[in-house]
Request: fold
Amino acid sequence: MSLIQFQAVSKSYPIYNSPSDRLKELLTFNRRKFHEDFWALRDVSFEVSRGETFCIVGENGSGKSTLLQIVAGILAPTEGQIRVDGRVSALLELGSGFNPEFSGKDNVYLNAAILGFNTEQIDRIYPQIEAFAEIGDFINHPVKTYSSGMVVRLAFAVAIHVDPEILIVDEALAVGDIYFRQRCLRKVHELRDRGITILFVSHAAGDVKAIGDRAMWLDNGRIREIGETDRVVAKYLAAMVEKDSAYLQLKKREPRAEAGPVEAPEVVTQIPNIDHRYGDGRAEVLGIVVLDAFGRKLPILQPQSEIIVRISVRAKERLNNPNVGFMLRNHLGVDFAGTNTTREGCELPPMEPGDVYTVDFHVQAPSLYPSSFSFSPAIADGTLITYRMCDWIDNAISLQMGHSEGQIYGYIHLPCKVEVNARLEDKRDVAEAQLG
Reply:
């Protein structure tokens, strides 16, 4: 059953060159047009089922917030039909729905009353809201005295405790501190498990991939892609890389005087899996393999062991600043860790067409929770800030992490030395005493 349904929805805003143009239009009773229409949304159609977590990605200005405001009932569409069945709780722009002159407590009661709660019902949920927000005595102070993070804390606490059937979360969580942001994401997961329908907008691709059942990519007010989350996010990120590359200007270098292409002594030519591949094609990943310290192919990752991630690449055009690397992802598709030659301070020489390089990354595998981890190799041309992606392969090889001797709490076990009732010595004093 669909709780949210958009059918050919469009939304336009009138743009006036000056305030007088608005007045002229009013004086003619709108018979003459003195404005231009800006279409924030154009012919958008989609459905969201009950209990589904539906994520929306896109650049700033792509129409995401406008769409959410239409779902929340704040805006009406210019064209098309919408249907929203169920109580909607929305966390949109920072402080939206709050009266800055009222205290936090007063705003809680006001917002809950607007959603149809009576005083007795609000009294029952208020302690939970206050405890989750964790803003202390500020709950009794005017909202205009709050920091942006405190506003988000209170807004999110209200949104999740008013028994929503549809929860809308915009990018507002990005301004919260990491501690509260993690609490919010855990709460989103909890609501998701309870069957609450969630519309989630974020620029954090990892969060979208971790919680989204489906995703939609908005581009200039139109649907560019809609469907399975990993596929949509991958295409969106690829497009962003391509857009970034349009601004890249590399310093021209003279072609290498050497005769013939460079050939690596050892070349990997196997790519076990390709979920998605993108890049401008100026170079390609030939293969990837994960080896142990003795150069043997690994069937499984062992905690606290040295591994070698070997990647072979070939240039098809000249690359002035080749950069080879890989991304490590967990079983949820979240980018867990990654590195590249430039990040590690290894500057590769320019590549001419036909050159083949093989790069070995010697990595000390930490103690991770036992799960499947995938390696996504890539080659780019440029710096860490400005670059052109030549070839990227999603999840080219996957390996299972073996069990550690001890329990893994969370995602990773950090190497740790434990001392009890110890006194820390000032190493400077010890050094001076030895010299004396």
The chain is about 25% helix and 30% strand.
